[in-house]
């Protein structure tokens, strides 16, 4: 063990036994209050964590006597630093700022004992995983304001929209909060709209496989910098705000990129058709049209013909998609940061509902937009899809303007925040559960030849394959809703054990489909049920880890820390995808083998990948059962391990570097991995 005792890290709720705080200075009998027994308390003892030794305007180390009922009645408190003032702010009571009796201000002596005060009260971002810096100086507002709201809604509907058991800051449908779920919904909508567009439009422009890979890499490359986006917003407020200004900027960039694409190129179906009529240059090579091919003319009836311009070049299309991805992921990180802050303010009884609601909005948008984009593209062409991608981000800008965020908050120095993140990743409460997440996700190795089997052997059409994708999106959203409704009270281990075993059963059913055993169902329906249920399980598994990640974020550094956790999790999936590609060489699962009717390799590969996926359950012991177990891990003797922190950061940054290198290679050296140029 290294790195200091747990008290130098965070004070967890379980560690802060507020019901029986040691050496409570406010519970000392009057006759013993001046006793030397309670003097000269060492600043590193537990007593210091509970306020003993904090100065007021007097020079006494004991501070003023206050009501012990008043001080210890809340479950969660935090220290805040305002100049030389330190406050203990109740996080679970209704206080609109006027009622000051629940505030405890300890003004350090400006003249005496300055050296003694140094380091004895830590800033709020050193307090605990459940505190929240942005609301550190304001008590939470009441969620039940029906009697003073002057609303025309019935009380039942009003309380349904704005649950009275949660603070106003967590009620997502409030005007000052609705930008948060709207951001998640927009993320899902744009993911759904851009997917078919980026997959199909380059093909219509006769892009090579290498160019398609380049376009895909450029669009996703900004996701590699999520950690940098989060760190920037944590440390450098823009116009006084750490989140809303950057969120507005991100969506403005995303919208502007599609406006540029729409304005400076012709995205019509006619332009695509004309582009496919290749001409021959003087040297005999094929070329693309780069000027306007048809000028406006007037027919004999005086009707104006349409002007057909040049479609975007591959480099120009790649640039606009890179710009779009930069704005998209920047705004996405800001939405995650806001949720990480607000989720800590939820009461224990409803903790997790805020995240499940936001992600339900996201996957609902994805579920709706993906099939809609396919239909719009097929019927109206790419220009209609691009218009939607340009217009939707602009709709959220007024909501972001109304987003309530405290302005000009005190921001810890970059050095302090880096030190805080280091202390965070050294905690066993971080590296152990995140180690499970990484190992489990790495083992989710799929059968990379499965789609080829569906198309070659079972003769699935493009519409049927798209139907499988749409069904997957629907079941993913239903999985999110199922967790929110039924499984949110389950322990995290129970969720992972049950869903992993079920996923193994349904993955094994693929072997029956390969052998032609479908129990009287058509192969399409059998495959639909198999693939769809796998995504339903994925939706259930998704939320426990995101809820856990939020409670690992130190207050004040939510942007960088949450982005770091999600980057580590997502990079494991990328590595699993690479493993699945490597397994294609173990047995012959080529298209030729399938056409010959040799499916032995498919059966073996399916059995192997199923076994690998299920093996992730062997590591479930690393995962805490509940948030309380997560807190207890912090006080474990192995907490504070520099080795654990180093391994965590090494894996994270190595994964980022891997993604960055692959993305850059796809851009500067198209075809390096074997794609045709």
Note down, in words, how this protein is organized.
This protein is mainly α. The chain has 23 helices and 5 strands. The strands form 2 sheets. Strands 1-2-3 form a 3-stranded antiparallel beta sheet, with no helix packed on it. Strands 4-5 form a two-stranded antiparallel sheet. Strand 4 (279-280) and strand 5 form a beta hairpin. It is globular, with a radius of gyration of 29 Å. The relative contact order is 0.12. Mean pLDDT is 74; it is low at 1-139 and 278-305.
Brief descriptors of the model:
23 helices, mainly alpha, two-stranded antiparallel sheet, 677 residues
Proportion of residues in β-strands: under 5%
The helix content, as a percent range, equals 40-55%
- Mean pLDDT comes to 74
Q: What is the tally of beta strands? A: 5
Strand arrangement within the widest β-sheet reads 1-2-3
Tally of helical segments: 23
Terminal residue distance: 53 Å
Cα-atom Rg, whole angstroms?
A: 29 Å
Poorly predicted regions are: 1-139, 278-305
Shape: globular
Task: Spell the H/E element sequence.
Answer: HHEEEHHHHHHHEEHHHHHHHHHHHHHH
Class by alpha and beta content: mainly alpha
Largest sheet: 3 strands, antiparallel
Task: Summarize the model shown.
The protein is an all-alpha fold and 677 residues long. 54% of the residues lie in helices and 3% in strands.
Draw up the topology in text.
Layout: H1 46-49, H2 68-72, E1 77-82, E2 85-90, E3 104-107, H3 114-117, H4 155-161, H5 179-204, H6 209-220, H7 226-235, H8 244-263, H9 269-276, E4 279-280, E5 286-287, H10 314-343, H11 353-380, H12 382-401, H13 414-426, H14 428-442, H15 450-456, H16 462-487, H17 492-515, H18 523-550, H19 558-582, H20 591-596, H21 600-614, H22 627-634, H23 642-668
Antiparallel strand pairs: 1-2, 2-3, 4-5
């Amino acid at each position: 063990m290294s790195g200091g005792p747990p008290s130098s890290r965070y004070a967890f709720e379980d560690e802060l036994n507020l019901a029986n705080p040691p050496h409570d200075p406010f519970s000392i009998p009057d006759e013993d209050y001046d006793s030397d027994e309670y003097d000269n308390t060492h600043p590193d003892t537990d007593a210091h964590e509970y306020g003993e030794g904090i100065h007021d305007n007097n020079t006494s180390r004991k501070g003023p006597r206050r009501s012990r009922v008043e001080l210890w009645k809340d479950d969660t408190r935090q220290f805040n630093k305002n100049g030389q003032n330190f406050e203990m702010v109740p996080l679970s009571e209704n206080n609109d700022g006027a009622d000051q009796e629940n505030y405890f201000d300890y003004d350090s002596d400006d003249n005496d004992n300055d050296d003694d005060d140094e380091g004895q009260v830590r800033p709020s971002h050193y307090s605990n995983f459940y505190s929240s810096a942005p609301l550190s100086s304001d008590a939470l507002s009441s969620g039940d304001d029906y009697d003073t709201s002057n609303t025309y809604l019935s009380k039942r509907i009003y309380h349904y929209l704005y649950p009275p058991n949660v603070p106003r800051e967590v009620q997502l449908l409030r005007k000052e909060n609705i930008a948060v779920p709207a951001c998640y919904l927009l993320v899902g909508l744009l993911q759904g709209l851009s997917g078919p567009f980026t997959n199909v439009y380059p093909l219509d422009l006769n892009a090579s496989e290498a160019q398609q890979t380049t376009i895909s890499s450029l669009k996703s490359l900004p996701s590699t910098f999520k950690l940098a986006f989060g760190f920037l917003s944590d440390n450098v407020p823009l116009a006084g705000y750490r989140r809303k200004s950057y969120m507005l900027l991100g969506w403005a960039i995303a919208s502007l990129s599609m406006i540029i694409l729409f304005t400076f190129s012709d995205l019509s179906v006619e332009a695509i058709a004309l582009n496919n009529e290749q001409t021959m240059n003087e040297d005999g090579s094929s070329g693309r049209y780069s000027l306007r091919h048809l000028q406006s003319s007037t027919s004999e009836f005086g009707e104006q013909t349409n002007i057909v311009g040049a479609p975007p070049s591959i480099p120009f299309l790649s640039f606009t998609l890179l710009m779009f991805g930069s704005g998209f992921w920047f705004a996405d990180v800001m939405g995650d940061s806001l949720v990480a802050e607000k989720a800590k303010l939820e009461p224990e009884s409803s903790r997790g509902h805020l995240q499940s609601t936001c992600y339900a909005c996201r996957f609902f948008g994805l579920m709706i937009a993906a099939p809609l984009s396919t239909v719009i593209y097929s019927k109206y062409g790419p220009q209609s899809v691009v218009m939607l991608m340009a217009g939707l981000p602009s709709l959220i800008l007024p909501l972001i303007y109304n987003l309530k965020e405290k302005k000009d908050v005190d921001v810890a120095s970059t050095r302090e925040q880096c030190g805080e993140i280091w202390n965070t990743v050294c905690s066993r409460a971080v590296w152990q559960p995140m180690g499970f997440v990484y190992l489990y996700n790495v083992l989710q190795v799929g059968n990379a030849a499965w789609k080829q089997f569906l198309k070659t052997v079972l003769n699935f059409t493009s519409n049927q394959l798209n139907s499988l994708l749409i069904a997957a999106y629907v079941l993913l959203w239903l999985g999110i809703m199922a967790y929110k409704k039924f499984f949110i009270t389950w322990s995290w281990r129970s969720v992972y054990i049950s869903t992993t075993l079920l996923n193994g059963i349904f993955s094994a059913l693929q072997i029956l489909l390969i052998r032609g055993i479908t129990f009287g169902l058509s192969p399409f329906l059998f495959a639909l049920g198999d693939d769809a249920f796998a995504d339903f399980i994925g939706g259930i598994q998704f939320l426990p880890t995101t809820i856990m990640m939020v409670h690992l974020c130190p207050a004040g550094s939510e942007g960088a820390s949450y982005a770091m956790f999600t980057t580590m999790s997502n990079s494991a999936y990328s590595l699993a995808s690479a493993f699945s590609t490597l397994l294609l060489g173990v047995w012959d699962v080529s298209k030729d083998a399938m056409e010959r009717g040799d499916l032995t390799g498919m059966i073996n590969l399916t059995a192997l990948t199923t076994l690998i996926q299920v093996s992730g359950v062997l590591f479930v012991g690393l995962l805490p059962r509940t948030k309380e177990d997560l807190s207890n891990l912090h006080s474990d003797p192995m907490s504070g391990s520099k080795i654990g922190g180093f391994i965590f950061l090494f894996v994270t940054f190595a994964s980022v570097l891997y993604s960055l290198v692959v993305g850059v290679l796809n851009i500067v050296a198209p075809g390096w991995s074997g794609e045709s140029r």
